[in-house]
Design brief:
Strand content of chain C: under 5%
Structural class of chain B: alpha+beta
Low-confidence stretches of chain B: none
Number of strands of chain C: 0
Number of domains of chain B: 1
Distance between the termini of chain B: 30 Å
Helix content of chain C: over 70%
Structural class of chain C: mainly alpha
Largest sheet of chain C: none
Helix content of chain B: 10-25%
Chains: A mainly alpha, B alpha+beta, C mainly alpha
Low-confidence stretches of chain C: 43-47
Distance between the termini of chain C: 61 Å
Shape of chain C: rod-shaped
Oligomer: heterotrimer
Largest interface: A-B, 53 and 54 residues
Radius of gyration of chain B: 19 Å
Number of strands of chain B: 8
Radius of gyration of chain C: 20 Å
C-alpha cells in the first residue's frame, strides 16, 4: 500500500514537471499560450475530448452497468460510440454559422440571443450549473473509490483527501499546459485499459467468457438485461441508446466546442478520429465489466471492477501507475467542469443580471465562493448518501440533454421556435427527467427517463412556440442564412470571410438608414 | 477637417472589384463607395503571480459598433488621415466600455488556461480608436463589402 | 458466434462497422468540400 501512495505522488509530480516544461517552452509567445492552441490537430483533439469527458464514468460507471446487467449494458456503449458523429454532423456547421452571426461566445449566451429573451439565459444558467455540479459530484465519488483502492484508506477519508487533492491540483494545474498533460494521461489510460483487456481476454477468451456467463445465468447474454428485466421494453432500450447518441447535443460544454471550432478542415479529421477511437475504446470498459462477473464473483461494489482487475493482472507497481492515471484523469475532468460552472456563474448570471458593473475581480471571487460551496456540498453528498457513479452520470447527463437538446437543435432548424417554446422545453424536459428518475417511473411505464424527457421537451417546444411573439424577422433571416443555401454563386459563397459578418450587418443597416447616407 | 487614425489600405478600388468579379464574372460589378469602420485597438500587459510568474503583452481589437473582440498578434501600423463624415461610421461604444470589454475578453481566455483559482492582473498599455477601410462593391443583384486591407469579403 | 445468442450478436456487432462506415463517408464529403475551397483559393492567387 505504501509504495502505491508513493507511485501516485511521484506520478502527479512528474505530470506537473512536464506541464511546467511545456509552459516554459510556450512562454516565448504568451499570446499563443493564452489564447488557445490553434495548432492542435484532429488526433489530439479527439483524444483530449475523450479523456476529459469520459473518465469517471468510463472506469467506474460503464463496467458496473455491465457487471450488473450483462450484455444489455452495451446499448449505452453503442449510443456513445456514435455520439460524436451525430453531434458533428447534425449541429456542427449550422450552429457555427448561426453563433457567428449572432456574435455569441458562450453556449448559454447563444440561447439568449437566438431566442431573444433574458429569461432563457437565467433558466439555462441555473439548470446547467446545478447539473454540471452533479456531474462533478460523480467524479468526486469516483475519485474517492479509486483512492480507496490505491491507499487502503476508508472511503470517507479517501473522498476528503481526493477532493482536497483535486483542489490543490487545480491550483497547480493552472500552470500546466493542460492540453499536453491531458494527452499524456489519455495515452496512459487507454494503453492501461487496453492492456488489462488484452491480458484478461488472454486469460478468458470472448467465446469462453460468454460460455461462462451462460453457465452462471443465460440471461446475461440477452439484449433485454439480466433476468430479462427489460424484456420487450423498447422505451427503455431506445432511451439507453439515445442518451449518449444524441444527448451530447444538449451538453453546453460540449456544444461550445463545435461553436468555437476554427477550421472546417479540423472537422473532417476529428470525425474520423473520434469515430475510430470510440469503436476501439468505448466497448472495452463494458467488456471488462462482463469479465468481472466471471473472474470477480465476490465483488461487493460493482464500480470497482477495473481497479480490482488491475491488481489481478498487473504487478503492484504498474497497477499503481494505472490507478494514478485514472485518478489524475478524474481530477482533470473535475477541474474543467468546475471551471465551466464558474464561468457560467460569473459571466451569465452575476455580471449579466446581478451586478453588471462589478469588477472582474469581484465577479471571480463570487464564482469561486459558489464553487467552493458546491465542492463542500459534493463532499457531504459523496460521504453520506453516495449514489453510484453510473446513476449520477446518467442522471445529470440526461437532465442536461433533456433541457438543452431540443432548444439547440430547434435553434438552427426551426423558424417558429421562440422563447416561450424554449422555456417550456428546458423546464419541461428537465422536470420530467428529474421526476421520472426520483419516482422511478421507468419501472412503471417501461420508458427510459431520457426518452420521456425528450418527448416532453419536444412537445413543450412545439406547443410553447404557439404562444408569445415569434422570432423577429432578423433572426428568421439569420436562420435562413445559417442553412447555407446558396443565393450567391458557389465560388463566391465558398470564399466569404465569415469573420466579417458583424461588420457586414452593421454596414448594411447603416447604408439602409436614409438619415445617415448623404 | 478632422484627422483620424486609419489603417492604410492595400487593395485599390479596381482590385476590390476584381476580387469579386473573378469569382462571379456573370455580371458587372462596380465599387460604390469606400466606408471606414471604427475599432478600438487595446493592448494590456498581463501578469500572473503565483508559483510561476508569467508576463506578456496581449492585444485585441474591439469592433466599436457590435463590441466584438478579435485577437491580433502584433500592433497594426496606423496612418493619420482626413476622413469625411459621410465615409466613416460613428462608434457606438465608448472608449472605456471598449477597454473593459477587452479585459473581460482576456480574462475569459486566461481563466480557461489558468483555471479558476488565479486572477491575472492586467494593466492598460495602449488604447487607440482607428478606422478600417472597406469597399462597398455591388452589382444589380448583389452587394459586398471588401476589406481594403486584407481583400476578404462578405455579402451585405 | 462467440457463444452469443444470434439476436444479441446481430443487435450489437454491426454498429461499430456502421459508425466507421458513416465516418468514412462523412470524411470524404468534407474532404471534397475542403478541396473545392482550396482550388478556388489557389486560382485566386495565381490569376
Amino acid at each position: 500500500m505504501k509504495t502505491d501512495v508513493i507511485v501516485f505522488v511521484v506520478y502527479l509530480v512528474v505530470l506537473m514537471i512536464i506541464g511546467i516544461w511545456f509552459t516554459r517552452k510556450a512562454s516565448k509567445s504568451s499570446e499563443h499560450y493564452l489564447l488557445g492552441n490553434r495548432s492542435i490537430g484532429p488526433a489530439v483533439t479527439a483524444m483530449t475530448m475523450q479523456s476529459s469527458s469520459m473518465s469517471g464514468y468510463m472506469f467506474m460507471g460503464g463496467p458496473a452497468l455491465a457487471f450488473q446487467h450483462g450484455w444489455y449494458a452495451l446499448w449505452y456503449a453503442i449510443g456513445d460510440a456514435g455520439g460524436a458523429i451525430v453531434n458533428l454532423s447534425v449541429l456542427g456547421k449550422r450552429m457555427r454559422r448561426l453563433s457567428e452571426k449572432l456574435g455569441a461566445l458562450s453556449p448559454i449566451e447563444y440561447l439568449e440571443k437566438r431566442y431573444e429573451s433574458p429569461m432563457v439565459r437565467v433558466v439555462g444558467s441555473i439548470i446547467s450549473i446545478i447539473f454540471i455540479l452533479a456531474y462533478v459530484f460523480a467524479q468526486f465519488i469516483a475519485a474517492g473509490k479509486a483512492l480507496t483502492q490505491l491507499t487502503g484508506f476508508p472511503y470517507e477519508l479517501a473522498v476528503v483527501i481526493g477532493v482536497s487533492v483535486i483542489t490543490i491540483y487545480t491550483v497547480a494545474g493552472g500552470y500546466l499546459a493542460v492540453v499536453y498533460t491531458d494527452f499524456i494521461q489519455g495515452i496512459i489510460m487507454v494503453l492501461g485499459v487496453t492492456g488489462i483487456a488484452v491480458l484478461a481476454l488472454n486469460h478468458i477468451g470472448l467465446s469462453e467468457l460468454n460460455a461462462s456467463l451462460a453457465a452462471l445465468d443465460p440471461t446475461y447474454l440477452s439484449i433485454w438485461g439480466k433476468d430479462l428485466a427489460y424484456y420487450g421494453q423498447w422505451g427503455v432500450i431506445i432511451g439507453a441508446i439515445l442518451i449518449y447518441l444524441i444527448g451530447y447535443m444538449g451538453l453546453p460544454h460540449v456544444v461550445v466546442r463545435h461553436m468555437s471550432m476554427k477550421s472546417t478542415k479540423t472537422v473532417k479529421g476529428a470525425i474520423l478520429w473520434a469515430a475510430t477511437w470510440n469503436q476501439l475504446f468505448i466497448f472495452i470498459p463494458y467488456i471488462l465489466g462482463l469479465i468481472g462477473i466471471v473472474l470477480l464473483p465476490n465483488l461487493a461494489d460493482p464500480e470497482m471492477v477495473i481497479p480490482q482487475l488491475t491488481y489481478q493482472f498487473f504487478p503492484g507497481f504498474l497497477s499503481a501507475l494505472l490507478l494514478s492515471a485514472i485518478m489524475a484523469a478524474i481530477m482533470s475532468t473535475s477541474d474543467s467542469l468546475l471551471m465551466q460552472a464558474g464561468t457560467i456563474l460569473s459571466r451569465d448570471v452575476y455580471q449579466r443580471f446581478i451586478n453588471p458593473n462589478a469588477s472582474e475581480k469581484k465577479a471571480i471571487l463570487i464564482s469561486r465562493l459558489c464553487i467552493l460551496a458546491g465542492g463542500l456540498i459534493g463532499i457531504v453528498i459523496a460521504i453520506y448518501e453516495p449514489p453510484t457513479v453510473a446513476a449520477l452520470v446518467i442522471f445529470s447527463f440526461g437532465v442536461l440533454g433533456n433541457s438543452f437538446l431540443v432548444p439547440y437543435v430547434a435553434s438552427v432548424y426551426s423558424k417558429k421556435a421562440n422563447h416561450i417554446g424554449t422555456l417550456c422545453a428546458m423546464i419541461g424536459g428537465a422536470a420530467t427527467n428529474i421526476l421520472w428518475t426520483l419516482l422511478n417511473l421507468e419501472s412503471l411505464t417501461a420508458v427510459h427517463p431520457f426518452l420521456a424527457g425528450l418527448i416532453v421537451s419536444f412537445i413543450g417546444m412545439v406547443i410553447g412556440s404557439r404562444f408569445g411573439k415569434g422570432p423577429s424577422d432578423k433572426i428568421k433571416q439569420l436562420i435562413e442564412e445559417a442553412k447555407g443555401k446558396k443565393a450567391l454563386p458557389a465560388k463566391i459563397e465558398k470564399n466569404i470571410a465569415h469573420e466579417l459578418s458583424p461588420e457586414a450587418n452593421n454596414i448594411s443597416e447603416i447604408l439602409a438608414d436614409p438619415s445617415w447616407s448623404r | 477637417m478632422q484627422k483620424f487614425t486609419i489603417l492604410p489600405d492595400s487593395i485599390s478600388k479596381e482590385a476590390a472589384v476584381a476580387t469579386i468579379h473573378k469569382l462571379d464574372s456573370s455580371q458587372p460589378y462596380i465599387a460604390e463607395r469606400k466606408i471606414y469602420y471604427p475599432y478600438q485597438f487595446v493592448s494590456y500587459q498581463m501578469k500572473v503571480k503565483a508559483l510561476l510568474v508569467k508576463e506578456g503583452a496581449l492585444g485585441c481589437t474591439i469592433d466599436m459598433i457590435s463590441g466584438r473582440e478579435s485577437v491580433i498578434d502584433s500592433k497594426p501600423s496606423f496612418e493619420r488621415s482626413v476622413l469625411d463624415e459621410a465615409e466613416r461610421l460613428p462608434a457606438v461604444l465608448s472608449k472605456e466600455k471598449a477597454e473593459k470589454k477587452a479585459v473581460q475578453f482576456f480574462q475569459r481566455h486566461a481563466s480557461k488556461k489558468y483555471k479558476f483559482l488565479t486572477v491575472p492582473r492586467f494593466s492598460l498599455k495602449e488604447s487607440q480608436l482607428f478606422f478600417r477601410p472597406f469597399w462597398v462593391v455591388s452589382s444589380e443583384q448583389n452587394r459586398f463589402i471588401v476589406d481594403a486591407v486584407s481583400g476578404k469579403f462578405h455579402p451585405l | 458466434m462467440f457463444n452469443l445468442p444470434l439476436g444479441t450478436f446481430i443487435a450489437f456487432f454491426p454498429w461499430p462497422i456502421l459508425f466507421i462506415g458513416s465516418a468514412i463517408v462523412l470524411y470524404f464529403i468534407f474532404k471534397r468540400q475542403d478541396e473545392r475551397e482550396e482550388e478556388n483559393n489557389s486560382k485566386e492567387e495565381t490569376s
